[in-house]
Amino acid sequence: MAAEQEGELGPGPCPCPGAAGDERGTAGGCRGSALPAPRQGLTESARRRLREFDVGDKFSRLPLPRAAVLLPLMVRGGRLHLLLTVRSVQLRRSPGEVCFPGGKSEATDKDDIDTALREAKEEVGLQPERVEVICRLMPGIDKMNNLVTPVVGFIEDTFHATPNPDEVSEVFVVPLEYFVKPLKYKTFSYRMSSGYLTRIHCFIYDDQEHKRSFKIWGLTAHFAVFLALVISGERPTFEVDYDLDNLISSSENNFINLYASVYERKKSNL
Fold first, then answer.
1. Is residue 176 a contact partner of residue 79, using CB atoms and an 8 Å limit?
2. How far apart are CA 166 and CA 89, in angstroms?
3. pLDDT band for position 264 (50/70/90)?
4. Which residues on neighbouring strands pair with residue 162, listed in sequence order?
5. Residue 169, pLDDT above cutoff 60
């Protein structure tokens, strides 16, 4: 549920300017239905790239509270798009912020995939069987020290969201390429409570369908950027904290350094 999701990495309001049945086919799992045949040509290379970066359950035993988000991809107008939500202003944490469907793990969830699919159903009415799960990408750690795993899946472009008004106020889509070639972008450094210094990406996306702009930043932007880098293989128009010639190893090293800083702080507080 959105009320339980701690998906934003950041020190509060964004300082940048802007707007107001278990089937496993890969190491990380492939659950759900396949897309119609006409979509296969555009998505097949994306599937191959994503599976190269699938972390499966490699980090599932780390001693941190667990959460997961769904990164829903769709083909629209001949391009890949990413579905995002706006959190209800009624929520206690991060009201009005852009995020992916997701939240904390519950006891009935078998794994991160279950968590992400359950939350997407609760928040926007996306039925689990309508998602073709491809992989789990490198996790992140949010400002509450939850281990957040991004689950990537394809959905049909005909999906009509039915937002739960208690959790989600809006649903919109952004071309995936916007997260490597944005029109409006800012970045700033942020030191986490563990002392780890990281780069915060902040995108402003002008949505013509909704006639408004959306601010996408923090851990949500972090996951979107990494997803775009993985699928496109292109160099972004802005600086990132990765060795783009060794994206798999550098992303893992970044996460290990982040986790080490959090773990050391937890030990020092015992």
1. yes
2. 9
3. confident
4. none
5. yes
Rounded Cα distance, 68 and 48, in Å:
22
Q: Which two tokens stand for residue 126?
A: 């996306």
**pLDDT value of residue 115:** 98
Q: Evaluate if residue 28 carries a pLDDT over 60.
A: no
Q: Which residue has the higher pLDDT, 94 or 113?
A: 113
Cα angle: 117, vertex 241, 68; to 5 degrees? 15
pLDDT, tens digit (0-9, with 9 covering 90-100), for 115-153: 999 999 999 999 999 999 999 999 999 988 999 999 999
CA distance 74 to 96: 24
* pTM of the entire predicted model: 0.87
Name, in order, each residue with C-beta under 8 angstroms of 8's C-beta and a sequence gap of 6 or more: 94, 97, 99, 142, 143, 217, 218, 219, 220
